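Loading example: each entry is read as two labelled lines plus one structure line.
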Amino acid sequence: MEFSFTEEQDMLRMSAKDFLAKECPKARVREMAKDERGYDPQVWHRMAELGWMGLVLPEEYGGTGASFMDLVILIEEMGRNILPGPFFSTVALCALPLLEYGSSEQKTKFLPQIAKGEAMWTFGLAESSGKHKASEVKLRAVLKGTNYVLQGHKLFVTDAHVADYILVVGRTGEGERPEDGITLFIVDARGPNVKMEAIPTIGGDRQFKVSFDRAVVPKDSILGKIGNGWHIADFILQRAAVLKCAEMSGACQAVLDMTSSYAKERIQFDRPIGSFQAIQHKLADMLIDVEAVQYLLYQAAWGVSVSLPSLWQISAAKAKANEAYQRICMEAIAAHGAIGYTMDHDIGLYYRRVKAAQFAAGDTDLHREVIAAELGL
Amino acid sequence: MDFRLGEKELALKEEIRKFAEAELPPDLVRNTVIDGEFRDFEFEISMSRKLAQRGWLVMSWPEKYGGRSASLLEQTIYEMEIAYWGIPGAWMGISGIQWVGPCLMMFGTEEQRERYLPLIASGQKDGVWCTGYSEPNAGSDFANIRTRALRDGDDYIINGQKVWTSVAHRARWCWVAVRTNPNAAKKHHGISIFIVDMKSPGVTVNPILNYYGRHHFNEVFFDNVRVPASNLVGEENKGWYYLMQSLAFERRSIAPTTYGNLKRILEELARYAGQTEYEGQLLSKNPVVRAKLADLAIDLEVLKMFAFQLAWRISQGQIPVYESSRNKIMGDDLMRQGAIIGADILGIYSQVDPDSEWAKLNGAIQGAYLGFPGQAIAAGTAEIEKSIIAQFRLGLPKSY
């Protein structure tokens, strides 16, 4: 048993911390919330130069061949700094399944572009119910000649407006189970019959309704096999769940640190408020929550990185992070008092992003169900 | 990061399972976390002896003192499995095994180690200890103790009273904190630790029954109890340091034990839900039941990780400062959740006397319900533990 990271991993974390402290201060985060693209192309370019997009991609595709755990560390730091932009959707949601399930032509075509920061991707699964379940996939794909024609829509597609490609979960057929007949399409996001409508969110991140109105997709522009794609969606959801936990873990740590510092500085009744037990106990509860999130994350990430079945560990991590991140933010605002309620203060930046994180890659109900199944219920 | 269990640990789990199946009645689910009660003392001590014979009772102690220098990881697995199977006798009242032995190894004389450790290691009645810490005016404010030890030639004379002393009614020895310097500038700098033979003249033990009539706690009165000076542990007036260490040992052991106990309870609840119907539907298919058990499972997993992390940290030679407190808080909270969720699932049956045939799950849920408030208060209340985290992990000023 080992509860520490390697020296290389510590160095990766330090360098990510340094880079993001410089390139992603909170002022930049606020600026990007108003920016049309929502990210700074120069920062994106520098990240690519650092090898971040290609971190876990094999060297033959321009990557560094690092481990899944390394990506977790990187994304923790991104979460700590609320890095805006399509890194998560490109790398976590799409580069990983492309690597796992892409044909060699697809990998050769798409992965180097991703590694160089020259292509952005996103993923569309959820429809009106917002649930990440095969039964909720109504988007239809019908074969016409050498193309599929897509009809339907996807909701809460992150960063669709800057994506070059969207990985879309559609239905090409029916079977006994809702998972039968699911196909994953690689869709040109700039195609003529792909329309986007912004869904404004409280987090200031970029989410979209993407409509496909007779959108034409060449029939080989498919990831995996026709009618047999749900396991790829599952793969994406599982990896995304862990990586979203990583993002939340970093965010939780930032909120704890911010609150702990404030408690030492803020003087009321002639003493730092951190000398009052009510505040101390809140912070202790927050610390326990932070460590709970971290250890469940690392266990799930480790399981994935050594290819052990980790379904319920992933679900435990995501369910815990969902609840803890929210609770930590709420307690932190309470500890800050009125100043925590202002636009000027940074805590609101985190609090407003809790909802998007909670519902990405499976909400708490979905993950509780995985665990209930594991318990044999 | 690596969360694999090694061959040795997996083999140990298997051996303990076989031991439980051979030695215990089938389907036994215990309803107390630690055996502070000793309701069937002879049976429990006989189990202690068997555990000693298997080399498990004090496994992490050096061979010289009856252990086998097992790693803290193995020790943690053992504690989890013992609790899971409900094997009594593993703690012998907890003090001797968990901290008296280790503290004597750290702070005692070789003579003390040779005298006392083998008795513990062999699982004998004379190896059962109690710990005299709390007093009527010194609970969380532990430095406020008044039980006095006065030097008298080659002896000390002890006068005073201890309260909430677990297992005193069965213990042969008492590890007791006393005041040796009433004029110390800081109260905690005037405290020493002594070993007292419970058979000494002047020692009186009165039971304190809990609200359900269970006998864990006692009052212990010391009326001019004469104790040889060689029974002083370490240095006079340095006792605070030793007792802080003992508390860290005690708090560490809560998480693995609670984890094992609750893991078993969770499995039994899942089994019960899968066999019990209400309005034509199995409880296990009820979404509320599923969600509650899933939530319990998630926090149980956190407790497991916390337990292993602390063990790992100590095994690296690091001195954990706040982790024991974190683990105690988490363990106590889990026990509470288990009691509440378990009672929700048992419904009206959750009120049944745990020893009655009417009781489901061997009364384990009632045991958790009745037991956790006491467990949560012992060895440091949640308020104290949270204050420790705030002060020592987060660097906030002491609040008291």
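Chain B touches chain A through 50 residues (CB under 8 Å).
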